[in-house]
Task: structure prediction
Amino acid sequence: MNRRDLIQIFGLGAAMGALRAGGAESQEAGEPYRKATKGLPPLKITNIKAILTAPERIRLCVVKVETSEPGLHGLGCATFNQRPLTVAAAVNEYLAPFAKGRDVDNIEDLWQNAYTSSYWRNGPVLNNALSGLDQALWDIKGKRANMPVYQLLGGKCRFAVDCYTHCGGSDLKQIEESVKKAMERGFRHIRIQRGGYGSPQLSKKADYKDVGFGLPVDSNMAVRPYVEATVEMFDHIRNVVGKEVELLHDIHERIPPIDAINLCKRLEPYHPFFIEDPFSPEDIGYFKMLRQQTSVPIAMGELFNSPHEWVGLISERLIDFIRVHISQVGGLSVARKIATLGEWFNVRSAWHGPGDVSPVGHAANAHLDLAIWNFGIQESVTFSERTQEVFPGCPTMENGYMHIHEAPGFGVDLNEELAAKYPLPERPGYWDPVRRPDGTAVRP
Ligand code: GCO
Ligand code: MG
Result:
């Protein structure tokens, strides 16, 4: 008989005792609330630390929460590739002393208090730190309940998580080959990009470089070459692969809003599954105009940090897919509420899931994807062997579906020794400036 069975028997015993003593609801004044709480023995947070590692040279941050039960810990994703050191400081210097000694089980209470513990809130650094703690507590609760987290969220609504993958190339032939390979791997949803975001390789003349404005590392991106190349790409790929495959594209907020509206209208004949980030979060006001002009499905949200950004877009049905980066909004506790809000307005999920989300974060995405009715699609990556060694229990991909590791919690662990072998790259993770030919800064 393992320890968990023993706990259940004792828990039951305690509850029976409480019942005999006049019922669990009758709590004597001053009697510690834990004694009256049914089920699991009290457990305290004993340590919280941020672990930074970069097996793929992407700056991952994972928070480990240790408890007063020897060997029982939880992991949570706090990955903010562009500012990992600031997140680690927020975890180690602020969240750790704040949460140490607190009850492991009361996730929502701890989230609410940690959220306001900085007074100022809803920012990328503190939200990622909060997410690391939050997800780790869900991982622990799953382990204490001896269940995968999706079970705590209500069980499965589907057998696995349907995903999209990234395809691209600098010319149409390369993109076509990449799409065909993805179809052979079983993907039904494929994102197509022509070169980098905004196809900067197609922008020839960078006048600002001629006059020495900015730095040589700054990249140049003109609007027209990108817009025309993207329409041509959809036309070519749709003709090559037919109507079956769902095609997605990420404008990545790189062109003026009105040009994004026109591009969406011109892509309508190719029936995209969704067009992502037509605008910057700063230009949310344009969504009404976009809706009036086209019925192309829209996905938005990877840059969101605050409820002010998603509540209106969802409740006014101005988007079709909410694409938040779960750690940027503060964790699983927040994402599941966003999913619930989406359900009432039939806005589906498409959580952000690129390389700069750790395997723990991908598992958290997938557990939530399994449990919500309004699941749309999941962005996916394939983990290298190196990453799988550092993170045993990584989700796996098969036939375009993501499968979580069926085990208590999120099912993913972290080998700290191996993780230490992959320190963060020297270069901090910031985005290099992107400019228009006249030197104007472009939102990346
Ligand atoms: C996506 C995103 C990413 C981001 C990256 C930022 O849709 O996957 O746009 O590619 O650019 O996560 O660090
Ligand atoms: Mg994106």
Observations:
- Confidence is low (pLDDT under 50) at residues 22-26.
- Residues 55 and 94 are 27 Å apart (CA to CA).
- The first strand starts at residue 45 and ends at 53.
